[in-house]
Amino acid sequence: MDFFGVSVPQASLDISRYTELAPENLIYDRSSRVYLAADSFTPVYSSSDATRYLNELLAYVAGVDSGSCSFLAWAPSVAAVPSPGRTFRIEVLVALLKAIREGGAIRVLYQSMTQPQATERTLSPHALAHDGFRWHARAYCHTRKEFRDFVIARMLGVEGFDSAAAKADDDIEWRTFLPLVLIPHPKLSESHKRAIELDFGMKDGEVTFECREAFLFYALRHLRLDLGDSAKPEAQQIALKNRADVETFMTNRAGTKQR
């Protein structure tokens, strides 16, 4: 009743219905006045997997989930590496969502790291994205005439709205996916390679992730695959099996842009 916020009659109806669906699953303990799982218990519904459980724990410890939306009735002591927070202006986020939903453009005061002062930018956003550390808006820049990533926290204010200069379908880098084939670092010992295979859920010594071309830079940095041969195998742990194909693709893409 407390966990789901239901009344006594509703709780009784729910338990009664469940015992009809799975009569061998529950045992009523009269001394404790509670229902217990029987030794023959078999789930009627699909159980949560380990990833979902751990993600809920992470949301709980990060303060993202207050507990009312979680199915965790009990949680062990858990901690997470502290991460610097980003300051978001709610009016900026609301305006971004409005522009994305309505297919329009937004004028914002943006503080770029390449400019000493904030400047007004007109953007045609079509998506939000998270690079593992911070939130971006994927948008067409009316000034540079190309799709770019804009850090939402650097949008200092909303100046107004405008007509879009490009559509989401025009963002080829966003719509293009590249396979990233990860393998244990070749210079690791066999036992260490096996540990990495288990850690990343590899099959036959590799695992493939699909990555948007627009986020390739962030993905390689997040996985520490941008270090090349500068890191020790024990620190690098993984390698990009199809690095040559990815680099060839990026070289060809850069050549196409220059032409």
Unreliable residue runs:
none
Structural class: alpha+beta
Largest sheet: 5 strands, antiparallel
User: Judging from the principal axes of the Cα atoms, what is the shape?
Assistant: extended
Average pLDDT, all residues: 88
Secondary-structure element string:
HEEHHEEEEEHEHEHHEH
Helix content: 25-40%
Query: Please, how many helices?
Result: 8
N-to-C CA distance: 66 Å
Enumerate the strands of the largest sheet in spatial order, edge to edge or round the barrel.
Answer: 6-5-4-3-7
Instruction: State which percent range the strand residues make up.
Output: 15-25%
Radius of gyration: 25 Å
Question: How many strand segments?
Answer: 10
General description of the model:
With 259 residues, the protein is α+β, with helices and mostly antiparallel strands. Among the domains are: 90-171; 176-258, no CATH class. The protein contains eight helices and ten strands. A five-stranded antiparallel beta sheet has the order 6-5-4-3-7, with helices on one face. A three-stranded antiparallel beta sheet has the order 9-8-10. Strands 1-2 form a two-stranded antiparallel sheet. β4 and β5 form a beta hairpin. The termini are far apart. The model has no long low-confidence stretch (mean pLDDT 88).
In brief:
It is built from 8 helices and 10 strands. It is α+β, with helices and mostly antiparallel strands and 259 residues long.
